[in-house]
Specification:
Aminodeoxychorismate_lyase_IV (chains A, B); homodimer; six-stranded antiparallel β-sheet; BCAT-like_N (chains A, B); D-amino Acid Aminotransferase, Chain A, domain 2; 4-amino-4-deoxychorismate lyase activity (chains A, B); 7 helices; nine-stranded mixed β-sheet; alpha+beta; pyridoxal phosphate (chains A, B); D-amino Acid Aminotransferase, Chain A, domain 1; folate biosynthesis (chains A, B); about 280 residues
Chain lengths: ~280, ~280
């Protein structure tokens, strides 16, 4: 594939995987998308913690820590800026949903170029829309970053306009949850709110980092149940993910938002980057 | 893998697939499990129709019909009994949920041996349990056989006892939907009921075939919203899928069921097999 530089499976340079891998057969696995800056994997400890939570939730054995970290370090070394995507699958099995007694999980690591024009923690406002697609409700999978991503694929297929940066997703009950590939924050009366992720959504690493940074700076942070009106009526709005960091929202559908004081303060906390 | 005889990708003998395939990355695709008997793919037209419905629902291009059927025929030819599993994925793309403008879907075909001891449409009663795992609610994916199968994987992981043949799944609201790898039918007052699949579940090919056969034989058939009590209080209970055909339930949790007149009549309609 153009744009992909390298791929490894279990540490070996390799671009093809056994078709019996349960990642392909059932989406039986997890993934992490990692920003590499100056050869360093940003927020690795938070990514690793989420991967471990995902393993527990899915009943997968934990990856061998030292080996995995060595593989990631090798892929990140000497990269001024790059993206690593780590897939961690349940490995191969015979046909059928039953997992093998002896799970041999597989690590698939992909390194790609840093996206053109993507500046981390940029103050440039995003233009976003509401997606019509509604997220599935499944408390058992909520928060973790598993490989069953048809919700995101279907939602992302709703727009082609390159001027639109992201789409916001609601759940089956109309609660606002997240962006297709980002988490959402809003500010109301000086308090930072981000949607609760009890029934669906991904608990993003940058979301966690921002919540911790905001709390450390004395900003009140709440995980809230929110609907469309809470978002459209917010004083400030921003999105975040591991690659772009945090980015203010300038336009949601027809409505304009200013980059307000809480967003500006958090942006200044993020720059220069505190990993 | 032991137990797997052969694998093809887009008609070429091949056991490894590009790690950038969106089937692996996101579960962006569909599958069908096909019974081969005497070199013939059973109920292929129904499988094909469901695959096409899946393509429409996911926005995937339809597979090239003649080519696909030729590949399936080649894999099925001279096989007294075998199982074919066809995966149909969105093909490769760069990182990110956005599909490429030019989707090059991939056909992955796996042929495996017929499961030892599996007799089609056998009158031998099954022993089944209730799964604790609840299916995700997602009307947009209900009925089709897509590759996001963590629900089934997690449910199937609830039992190891080989004496247990299947587990029944409820949705987030407690409605009974299906077995982990089968559809459910119950008989009450001579009427055949099977769960509605508006919010989740797979519309099985054998389910469709049984509904059509029952109706043709003058048996009333209803797709119903059902809860646990409807199942435990049923006069007769049976499961079906493309491999085992239909099979009466003999025990659900502690409760015993008799193979009643409607089940027996349907079993006789299925034997000798009318494809």
């Amino acid at each position: 594939m153009s744009g992909i530089e390298s791929a490894w499976i279990n540490g070996e340079a390799q671009t093809r995987i056994d078709v019996h891998d349960r990642g392909l057969q059932f989406g039986d696995g997890l993934f992490e998308t990692l920003a590499v800056i100056d050869g360093r994997i940003m927020h690795w400890e938070r990514h690793r913690a989420r991967l471990m939570r995902g393993c527990q939730r899915l009943g997968l054995p934990e990856p061998p820590r030292e080996q995995l970290e060595r593989e990631l370090q090798t892929a990140a070394a000497d990269q001024p800026r790059a993206v690593l995507k780590l897939l961690y699958t349940c490995g191969c099995s015979l046909r059928g949903y039953a997992r093998p007694d002896d799970i041999r999980a597989q690590r698939v690591l992909l390194r790609s170029a840093w996206p053109a024009g993507l500046e981390r923690h940029s103050p440039a406002g995003l233009r976003i829309i509401w997606c019509r697609h509604r997220l599935a409700s499944q408390p058992r999978l909520a928060g973790i970053k598993h490989l069953n991503r048809l919700d995101q694929v279907l939602a992302r297929a709703e727009w082609q306009d390159p001027e639109i940066n992201e789409g916001l997703l609601r759940d089956q009950d109309g609660h606002v949850i997240e962006g297709v590939a980002s988490n959402l924050f809003l500010v109301r009366n000086g308090v930072l709110h981000t949607p609760r992720l009890d029934n669906c959504g991904v608990a993003g690493v940058m979301r966690e980092h921002l919540m911790a940074s905001a709390r450390a700076a004395g900003i009140e942070v709440m995980e809230s149940c929110m609907d469309e009106n809470d978002v459209t009526g917010a004083d400030e709005l921003f999105l975040c993910n591991s690659l772009m960091g945090m980015r203010p929202v300038a336009r949601l559908a027809g409505q304009r938002y200013e980059t307000g004081p809480v967003t500006r303060r958090l942006l200044s906390l993020m720059n220069p980057e505190s990993a």
